[in-house]
Hints:
The complex is a heterodimer of chains A (306) and B (275).
Chain A lengths: L1 H38 L2 E4 L2 E5 L3 H6 L4 H36 L4 H9 L6 H11 L6 H8 L16 H13 L1 H13 L2 H9 L4 H12 L1 H16 L3 H7 L12 H10 L9 H28 L5
Antiparallel strand pairs in A: 1-2
Helix pairs in contact in A: 3-7, 3-8, 3-11, 4-8, 5-12, 8-11, 9-10, 11-14, 13-14
Chain B lengths: L1 H5 L1 H26 L3 H6 L11 H8 L1 H34 L5 H13 L6 H10 L6 H25 L4 H8 L4 H12 L1 H17 L2 H6 L8 H11 L4 H36 L1
Helix pairs in contact in B: 2-14, 4-14, 5-8, 5-11, 5-13, 6-8, 8-11, 9-10, 11-14, 13-14
Amino acid sequence: MAKQGLKRQQNRMAIILLAPAMATILIFTTIPAFTTLSYAFFHWQGFQRGSFAGFENFSKLFHFPFKDQFLMALRHNLLVFVGIFIVQTSLGIFLAYGLFKIKRGQRFHRTVAFFPVIFSLVIVGYTWQIILNPFFGPINYFLHSIHLDSLALTWLGDTKTALPTLVFINLWRWVGFPTIIFLAGLNAISTDYVEAARIDGASEGQIFRRILFPLLAPSMTIVSILTFIGAFEWFDLPYVLGGSTGGPAGSTDTLALMFYRLSFGSVDSIANQIGIGSALGVVIFLIVGTGATLGAKWLRGREVEA
Amino acid sequence: MIRLLGSKVFWRGILIFNAISVLLPVFFLINSSLRSSQDFAKNPMQLARHPYWQNFSQVWQNGDFANFLKNSLIITSGSLVVILAFGVGAGFVLGRYQFRGQNLILGFILTAMLIPAKLMILPLFIQLKWMHLLDSHLGLILVYASGSLPAAIFILSGFFRALPADLDNAARIDGASEGQMIRKVLIPLVRPGLAIVTIYAAIPIWNDFFLPLVFLQSPGKKTIMQGLTIFFGEYGSQWGVLFAGLMIASLPLIALYLVLSEQFIKGLTAGAVKG
């Protein structure tokens, strides 16, 4: 009897405690996620929904004038992903290995390496905008003072250098994140393996290549997937430094910026186009979803039991 | 080359180089905020020997800036209250009770975790408008809460599950109700989990730019990160004032990081390690 009373009290408790969280998630995440799909299949007048459109919005996205914008933005996202992936991941492993080797002062260096991750991208973006300012910034001031004037470029103002510069700023802000993930991965590897290899006469390089790196595969999976998702939803940094059109001259335009312009309008196209915007949203979701799922599957396949 | 990669001196050098490249821009930011704009325009690389505090008073006199900070504080702390209150409840139930339908609820939460908030901004916009929650702090708080709750529930349920089962029974035998047991016995024991969730949720919300950009339109309601973009438009090349603005906006997090760096690192990587 007492036990049944407890069970009843627990059931009531479970409902009271679960309901607020479940309702919040349902209303502000699950329902909008389902409606976002339907938006892409309707005609829209501003924020007013019109008649059923079938795949018209999708086909508009792949025709003039949106096609060129879409392909250019997609190309930028791909470049950004490749750039971030190669530089940020290898530098992350490199720094993590350094932290792993150095025990004295590790805590200090770990704290410093992660420091930029806490900064807002708005603050990071503006700070670097001034640092890289062609006339008043310290970098070009320094380059001029040592007579390397040819290297003092208009970093963010030139269509050729703007995107790589944004990737560099992103690197400064983010590299601490994969570093910490890889360091945790290295620390999780049993020291028995490393010591056994050392007794067998393996060099430090061999130990890293044959033992540590393969056993880092789970961390690699996490970092790769997060980098992929981040690269294809890249918005804050290009918006803060290049505006909603990805300036200069669209050289830093991304899919997320294009999605924003279509959804809420912008300087060059006052009226918003919710139908086409939603279609682009669905396309981005498909790219991120399939890319992350297939990537995770392939990467998990090469993980070995530690 | 191989020998070099094995030596501790080499790796220590790399770490020191990394520390300099991280800290130099931050030092530049702090240093420049203490120099007058004319002084900075003459030479961007000089030390601020005589701190020029007027930059800060000028930022502060711009009444909007304090208001932006206040708005960010309201939105971040409001979201945290909702996330912690709802997250502790749901985390407790999922971590400590066994009941039918539990897997269904776990699946529901896991699915919500995979949905990128940015891409459903349009239906959210229209839905908030319909609910009269557009251009309102409460609307933004609920959207943030919904975004952080799934991971918060997962993290907290893990902490609740790790507590010994006898704890509940002992409290129950002593005559505690379920509510008393949660408040007086369990919550104090999951404090490390609460710290992780607080940082996991608070930092991205404080730093967020996209959602306020879309959802808040009245100038009086905007957050500090939106405020900075307005500020940069207004003060053009008054470098000292711009730097002071950036300093004020980043100071709260820098100060907290100096004290709680371990918790920050754990909290901000929690999503990656748990998910």
